[in-house]
Design goal:
Rossmann fold, 2 domains, ABC1_TM_dom, transmembrane helix
């Protein structure tokens, strides 16, 4: 379905606001015809009959009332249209955010954050013009010219026929010029998304750019991207101005031709003065909504271009669909992979192939091997971020695909390679895992991961703002805080992906001791690491080579003496 049709369907979903906005716009057009008829009658009477001013009083009062009523209706129509736009945009914001959450990290890792942000913010804002101006104007442009042609034809058939021939040329030229503008609109939107994505990357990487002395160069890059965006925007505006010129020319020539024919016929006596005056007053009312539609046409194309990307995200297939009657999450955390292969869409090779593994309740298993053999993919599969292309995953004998995702994820705590922290306090970031936890419990967990002394030195303690993505903390402190948050969740299954990669050896040893104490014997652990020290947490080590369909198992103590197998690849 074309983007504009889907946008129309979104508007119709808010039936009350949609009908109110369109009805008021249509009634405003009717008032324009009535207002012209009253004015024509008043002028003809004043010119031909020359009555006393008192006799014209009721007609003048009626005309003034129509002017005021039309102004009020125009204002009300705009308010209702903006209300409709606000409701549709709010609904789209919710749908888009929910879809991105449902797609999960497996999808967003392959996208540029700046582009997604531009789509979810500026992209949706581009739709405001479509719902508040373009859509109502299309209704007015469809009804008012037709009403004017009928009204004129009833009074004077020849003039009605002339207007019926002239009016269609306005949308014809609008469509022809619009085809030229569409490609420019698409280029403008691409440049905007690219610029937004690059700018966000530069802001987030500014400390690194400063360290390597490349921040000045990025100013030049952003300057060039800004110039390209400005150039494409000016190209769109040039076409828009050309469109306005052509539409004005068509409307002016048509009105002039009508005026000449009416003048000739008026002199010859084949048309009455009042009728001729009415036709001349109604002709601009016929072309006014068409010209206004032409002026808004480019805003509609910009909205359609933005909507195409929005709908592409909304139509992105989910990795899994919720079952109609999902199974209850088992209490025992026995996890089994049976001949699991995972091949992302569009990838020529699988990231994991023929993988088999059984993890018993309370067991601690480490996954090691070179980068790219699928260790993190195993965790993604367990978290529901990806779906197996072949094989299945069982939890205590129940297929993972049959479990409700939200309930399952509550049983899993996860520390990713790049943990995320929100721009709020340290306490708030921890309470995401356990909203009701007391400060004493938070401090106990923080001490176990060697963050107790760090918090004690902070003037605001747990109320210390972390900054965007936790940038006020060092890399090692962020890793320890992520561990604390995962352990605070107290979930029966713990997934750790390179949890100590940014810690020095002394801190790593102390943190691992704390994690070991908090794990106890009842929690199940699946650990991904390149470093040998975290293997002390494991009862069993599984080596992934990326070649063998089945993975051999080793004891952790044996692998601790085989550093090349677990060193950085």
């Amino acid at each position: 379905m074309r983007p504009e049709r889907r946008l129309g369907a979104l508007a119709r979903a808010h039936r009350g606001a949609f009908l109110a906005a369109l009805s008021v716009s249509a009634v405003t057009g009717v008032f324009a015809v009535v207002q012209a008829a009253v004015l024509a009658h008043l002028l003809a009477r004043a010119f031909l009959e020359r009555p006393e001013w008192e006799a014209l009083g009721p007609g003048v009062g009626a005309f003034a009332a129509l002017v005021v009523a039309r102004a009020v209706l125009t204002w009300a129509g705009r308010r209702l249209s903006h209300h409709l736009a606000a409701r549709v945009k709010a609904a789209l914001h919710g749908e888009l955010h929910a879809k991105l959450l449902a797609l999960g990290p497996a999808f967003t890792r392959g996208e540029r954050s700046g582009e997604l942000i531009a789509t979810a913010t500026e992209g949706i804002e581009q739709l405001d013009a479509f719902f508040s101006r373009v859509l109502p104007q299309r209704v007015v442009a469809g009804l008012v010219p037709l009403g004017v042609i009928v009204a004129v034809a009833l009074k004077d058939g020849a003039s009605g026929a002339l207007l019926a021939v002239a009016a269609p040329w306005v949308p014809v030229f609008m469509i022809l010029i619009g085809k030229q503008a569409q490609a420019r609109n698409e280029r403008q939107w691409v440049e905007l998304r690219r610029m937004a994505a690059h700018f966000l990357d530069v802001i987030q990487g500014l400390p690194t750019l400063k360290l390597v002395g490349r921040s000045r160069y990025q100013l030049e890059v952003i300057g060039r991207m800004t110039e390209r965006f400005a150039s494409t925007t000016l190209g769109v505006l040039r076409v828009a101005f050309l469109s306005a010129l052509v539409l004005e020319l068509v409307a002016t020539l048509s009105t002039a031709l009508l005026a000449v024919t009416l003048g000739v016929r008026l002199v010859s006596g084949t048309v009455g003065f009042e009728v001729a005056l009415l036709v001349l007053l109604l002709a601009p009312e016929l072309f006014a909504p068409l010209r206004a539609l032409g002026a808004q046409h480019h805003a509609g194309m910009a909205a359609a271009t933005a909507a195409e990307r929005i709908f592409a995200l909304l139509d992105e297939p989910l990795t899994r669909a919720e079952r109609a009657a999902p199974r209850a999450v088992p209490s025992r955390m026995q996890v089994r992979f049976e001949d699991v292969t995972c091949q992302p869409p569009g990838s020529p090779v699988p990231t994991l192939e023929g993988f088999e593994l059984t993890v018993s309740p309370g067991e601690r298993v480490a996954l090691v091997g070179p980068s790219g053999v699928g260790k993190s993919t195993v965790l993604d599969l367990l978290l529901g971020f990806r779906e197996p292309s072949r094989g299945r995953i069982l939890v205590d004998g129940v297929p993972l695909a049959a479990l409700p995702l939200e309930a399952w994820r509550k049983q899993v705590a996860w520390v990713s390679q790049c943990p995320y922290f929100f721009d709020t306090t340290l306490r708030d970031n921890l309470l995401l895992a356990q909203p009701g936890a007391a400060d004493a419990e938070l401090m106990r967990i923080l001490r176990e991961v060697e963050l107790g002394p760090v918090i004690a030195r902070l003037p605001q303690g747990l109320d210390t703002p972390l900054g965007e993505r936790g940038l006020r903390l060092s890399g090692g402190q962020r890793q320890r805080l992520a561990l604390a948050r995962a352990l605070l969740q107290d979930a029966p299954l713990l997934l750790l992906d390179e949890p100590t990669s940014q810690l020095d050896d002394v801190t790593e040893a102390a943190v691992l001791q704390g994690v070991k104490r908090l794990l106890g014997r009842e929690k199940t652990l699946l650990l991904v690491t390149h470093r040998p020290a975290p293997l002390r947490l494991a009862d069993r080590v599984v080596v992934l080579s990326g070649r063998a369909p089945r993975t051999p198992a080793h004891t952790a103590s044996a692998l601790l003496h085989r550093a090349p197998l677990v060193g950085h690849s």
